[in-house]
């Protein structure tokens, strides 16, 4: 016999309906799907007519549809609650607590600053300790390095909480770092006579690595390049103190570890360059003090209106009267000569020599003050011979014949400007040499890996002791170039210059060859052909 499934809504209460057959009592279904399965267990036999069964079937269908709608609504509400909880958690993590108008850093920014603090607490602290043990100029230099890294820390912290500013404001933000770098390098230049000069040079050559924040792509290799520049001098320190004082060896190790850790820090957090926050305010123009925006001043009042134009102006009346009188006289024609006065012979200068001598000075010239035609002498500038970064500056040298640049490096450039009647010797190997606006200058150098250039100069004598690939002469009058055997293959490029001679070594003497100054150009049917001309004489 078919069974009828009924539910007990309350303990002790049974709802069975008008269905024949034994009743099976089960627990209340926990979901609409279970209710659906129960309602479908309708017995196929029973009593009652077909109309009643149809109503029951319609009622069951409505209940099923309502149950399905309730289930879908419950799922949607559950998903909405999950989304709201997620958004709320994110907002709480990003906003945090606001203090002093500053926005807390995001999680990545805090990790970045923790890593930078680890660099300061580790390698930098050890470097400072070793520097204070050595003392003297090294200790002072180390304090400057410490201050520079603190400034960079402030810059990185600003970048984690602010959006990137415009280029002009960014340059202002980077200026404190640049000033500290310049201070460290200037300290080395002022203490060239120090017994710890190699220590100072190692720091001075590598401190530009702090400029990695301005490198757009892959700043890590830039820091490594600066670290390699420092090793040129740290190797000298190791050579001098390896068997004498181990503290200097520890100093080298601790200092180089700063840049090693810096490379690892950049690789982990700033592989492709400095990252700015995507949220928060735009970074201010000052790194330490954000100046409040000043209210706009009101515009100045308009200028007063011009005075009213009237015909009663005395100046205008006077000028109009004079012009009217002039036109009246011109309209007289030939009758205008009737108003001329007769001059007697005693008043004519060509007949009275005494009047000629008196007429040399006029009334106007007597009252005119004599003008001084003596020009003011040009201000003499102080001579310069110094290394500025990787650039040797030799400027405004007069009557000096013992100028020498001894300590040179491959990446350095020598710039010689406005030196007259002087002699300069450059030892070692440099990248390039430029002679600009000089007169009667003698120059002797060993090796140049790039180009030697002379421009806007006069009476220059140049001697190459080693090798140079290219010599360029522009807008120069008078140039003597003494080549060595190693530099005979160099290229000589000249433009707008004259009196150029190249002296080539032959046996124990030099042979002179003039550089052509006159050229002949002809059209060969398809192009212009230019060749030097030889003057027959």
UniProtKB/TrEMBL annotation:
Compartments, as annotated in UniProt: Cell membrane
Start and end residues of each C-CAP/cofactor C-like domain: 377-515
GO CC terms in record: cytoplasm; plasma membrane
GO biological process: actin filament organization; cAMP-mediated signaling; cell morphogenesis
Record-linked InterPro entries: Adenylate_cyclase-assoc_CAP (IPR001837), Adenylate_cyclase-assoc_CAP_C (IPR013912), Adenylate_cyclase-assoc_CAP_N (IPR013992), C-CAP_CF_C-like (IPR017901), CAP/MinC_C (IPR016098), CAP_C_sf (IPR036223), CAP_CS_C (IPR028417), CAP_N (IPR053950)
Region (Disordered): 287-317, 348-385
Gene Ontology molecular functions: actin binding; adenylate cyclase binding
Keyword terms, alphabetized: Cell membrane, Membrane
Composition-biased stretches (Polar residues): 358-376
Skewed-composition ranges (Pro residues): 295-309
Highest taxon above the source species: Eukaryota
Family that this chain belongs to: Belongs to the CAP family.
PANTHER family in alphabetical order: ADENYLYL CYCLASE-ASSOCIATED PROTEIN (PTHR10652)
Name this polypeptide is given: Adenylyl cyclase-associated protein
The organism of origin for this protein: Ameiurus melas (Black bullhead)
Organism classification: Eukaryota, Metazoa, Chordata, Craniata, Vertebrata
